[in-house]
Amino acid sequence: MGLTLDGLLGIASDVGMPSFAARQMAEWLYHKHVSHIDEMTNLSKKHRAALAEKYEVGRHAPLLSQLSADGTEKMLFGVTTTTPSDDDSQRVETVYIPDGDRATVCVSCQVGCRMNCLFCQTGKQGFHGNLTTCDILNQIASLPQRDSLTNIVFMGQGEPADNADSVIQAVTILTAPWGYAWSPRRITISTVGVRDKSERLLRETECHIAVSLHSPLAAERHLLVPAEGAMPIEDTVAMLRNYDWSHQRRLSFEYTVFGGLNDTRAHGRALVNLLEGLDCRINLIRYHRIPLIDLPDTNEKRMVQLRDYLTQHGLFATIRASRGQDIDAACGMLNTKQDEQ
After folding, report:
1. Of 39, 65, 148, 341, which sits with the fewest C-beta atoms within 10 Å of its C-beta?
2. Is-catalytic flag, 300?
3. Is the pLDDT of residue 340 over 50?
4. Is the Cβ–Cβ distance between 97 and 103 less than 8 Å?
């Protein structure tokens, strides 16, 4: 699991199988969701035995799960990483969010994160490696609620652009006819804006894009999102203007709201000026407190005022419902440091 059709062709050649066996394997892996090579029953016993000597499917169930009072479920998956590590017990958290006729899985792509956003618990554990394509897909394929999913968001642990190779390959498999055959319009990839990497997500996928904004003011955003220093938000927005957002592909900006810090009328005006003429939406997100970080909460009234100001000035803004906070599954709360120790 995690190999494209070309990769499966290489495996077929490696064990002396005919080339058409690559599509057979893809069907078993991505359409029929097998867990073991022996389940690929239209391959000969000889070829299954040859495969099993060198390869395994790569599916593995979550190690633990927690259920929120609101129905959100957080799962812990064991992973391997593409980055060399002495730790053979790496973990990531994955979140399943049911909401009426929608069901979303929030997928992780790294153990920890290099971006170290001030308000995000994932960054506080440091960076411990990129997930393989297999372990990204396993969070979906081995999710107990897999068959009910309507949406996938790459908004879990890690920065997708910082692991662009594995994320793009995962999206390729998710959307290919020989893969999971998902529409890219059911997949959203988040990014803070990483120079020379975020553009690959735009260019090499057709998924929705969500940019972590959090402040329209450069100096203030730099305090919240250190990646601002390497790729200023103005550069990110300029890059985004080169793409066509007028059709089904959606661009959104994630904006965690802090009381008195980034929820003022001046911030609203700066957001309008920054995003003027760009076909996008803004998702206002409640700040979820994390240990040792002293940032101010906002309140519902101020969030509504900011939303209404943006809407009145031509920006489509919504307030995102907070889910899973009681099990540390809400935005900015994922962290597996304790599980790794």
Report:
1. 341
2. no
3. no
4. yes
Selecting among 73, 93, 159, 199, the annotated active-site residue is: 93
Q: What mean pLDDT is predicted for residues 122-140?
A: 95
Instruction: Quote the CA–CA distance of 44 and 242 in Å, as a whole number.
Output: 51
- What's the chain's average pLDDT? 94
In this prediction the pTM is 0.95
93 in catalytic set: yes
Exposure string over 206-224, b if 16+ CB within 10 A, otherwise e: ebbbbbbbbbbbeebbbeb
